[in-house]
Amino acid sequence: MNAYLIGLVLTAASTVYALPAAGVNTAAPFTLLPGPAFDALIVGDWGTDNSDQTAVAAQMNIWAAKTQPSAIINLGDNFYQGQASYEAVQAVNDPKFASYWKNVYNGDSIKSLPWWSVLGNHDWYTVNSQIYELEYQDPNWILPDFFYTKRVQIDTGVFATFLFIETDFLAYNAGGSKNAMDQNFQAMGWSTSAKTNKKQLAWIENAIAQANNDQYIIVVGHHPTYTCGGKDSSPDLQALLAILNKWNVSAYMNGHSHSMAGYVTNNGKTLQVQSGSGGQVSSYCAPVDTSFSAQLTTDQSLEASLGFSHLRINKNQIQVDWITSSGTLVGSLSVPARVPVSGVVPDKTYLTSPTDASVHFSLAPLPATTSVVNTKTSTTTSTTKAITPTSTTVSIAKTSLVTSSKTKTTSTTTTTTTTTTTTTTQTGPTINPAKWNQGKKCAHDPCSTGSALDPSCDKSGCLTAIGNAYPYCVNVHWGNNKAPCVDSIYDICGFVCQ
Ligand SMILES: *[C@@H]1O[C@H](CO)[C@@H](O)[C@H](O)[C@H]1NC(C)=O
C-alpha cells in the first residue's frame, strides 16, 4: 500500500467515502476535513451556454451549501461561442458576461463567491477578447492580471499561496494557435523572439520560490502539464511541469481536457487535478507518463462525466474531491502539507522587471495575508465561516488601472479639484490623469482604434510613461514592428501623432 494514498477513495483514514455505483444519482456520504480550513470549488471549461453548463452550476450550488466554500477557482475557457456568433467576448461590457456567467452561477450558495480566474485558449479567440476579460468589472470576477498570486492563512502559522498563470502562450508558441490568438499574442508583444515564454516560466518559478516557506503552493492554469502529458503538452508546458516538481508544489489544477482526472505525482508530493468538464464533456485523455502513485479512479463514468471539483485545505493536508453533474461524489485525493524545499534555487535568467509590459505580469511581493477559513467539520453540523474572505492580491498593473478608473469617476462627479489628489501612481509629468481614458475603454487596441504611432512621436516620454503606468494600454516596447498606439493620445498627452 502506498503511503501517499492518504485520501484516495476507499483508502481514506480520517475521511470516509463510499463510492456509489456508477450512474447512481446519490451523493456519497461525506465528511469534511476538520477545520479550520480553506474551502473552494473548482470548475473549468464552463462557458458553453447550454444545459450541460447549467446542470453543473446547479450541483455546484448544492455542494456549496454543504461545504461553504470561500471562492470558486476558475480554470478557463470561460466563453465559448455558445448561441452567439462569436467565440470569447467582443467588449468589456459583452452581454456574455451576464448570460454565460453571472446569470448561470446565481444559486444562493454560490452567487456571492469570488471567481479566482485564469483564461483558456477560447478566451483568446476574438480580437482583444483576453483584454476585455481582464478589464471586465464585477466584484466577483477576479482576474487582476494574466499572472497573479493570492495567499491565504489557513491556521496559525499555516499558509497557502495560489499562483494563477496564463498557459496559452506556453502551450501554443510552438504552433497550433487558432482564430485571433496569434494576433492577440502579437498585439501584446508576446513572442518567442522576445523570450516571452522564458520570462513567463521565470515569473512562475520565482513566485513559487517566494512562497517556498508556505505549507501549500497551488498553481492554477488552463492547460494540462501532466494529465494529458505527452499528448497536449508543449515543450514549455513540460518545462512548467519540471518546475512544479522541482519545488514540490502541492497541486497543479487545469482544465482544457473536458474530463475529470486526478493523480498523485512527484513521489507523493504533488496533486495533479483536472476538472475540465464544467460545460461539456469529451473523452478522457490519459497521461502517457504513468509515474503516479495514486490515481483518482479508472471509472470511465467519472472520466466521461460533466462535473466540478471541491478543494479543502487544513493544516495537515490538501484534498480534492470530484463531483459529477448528477451530484455523485466520485473520488478524492490528497497530499500532506509540504515542507520547504532546500538545495534548489530559482532560475532568474529571464526574470524581468516587475512591470514588464510585454509580458503582462508583475512579481510583486507576496501580499498581506488574508484568512479565508471555515471551521465546518461535518455536513451534519451547522457552521459559520470564521472569517469572511476578501481578495488579497492584485498586481501592479491592474492596481493602476483601477486607480485610474476611480480617478475618472471622481472627476466626473465633482467637476473640479480632481487632478492633484489622483496623481500619486502616475509617472511622467505630461500625463494629465484627469483626462485619462475619459469615457473610453482602455486604449489598448494597437492600431485598431487609433493610428499607429512612430517612436519618434514620443519625444516627451508621455506614451512610455503611460505604458509604464498602464501596461495594458500601450505597448511601450518599441520596435518589432509593433508601434504602440492609443486612441486618446491627444487628451492624455496633448499632442497628435501621425
Ligand atoms: C521534495 O520532497 C521530497 C520528498 O519529501 C524530498 O525528498 C525532496 O528533497 C524535496 N525536494 C527538495 C528540492 O527539497
TrEMBL record:
Keywords: Hydrolase, Signal
Calcineurin-like phosphoesterase domain boundaries: 41-259
GO molecular function terms noted in the UniProt entry: hydrolase activity
Secretion signal, residue range per the UniProt entry: 1-18
Pfam families, alphabetized: Metallophos
UniProt protein name: Metallo-dependent phosphatase
Organism of origin: Rhizoclosmatium globosum
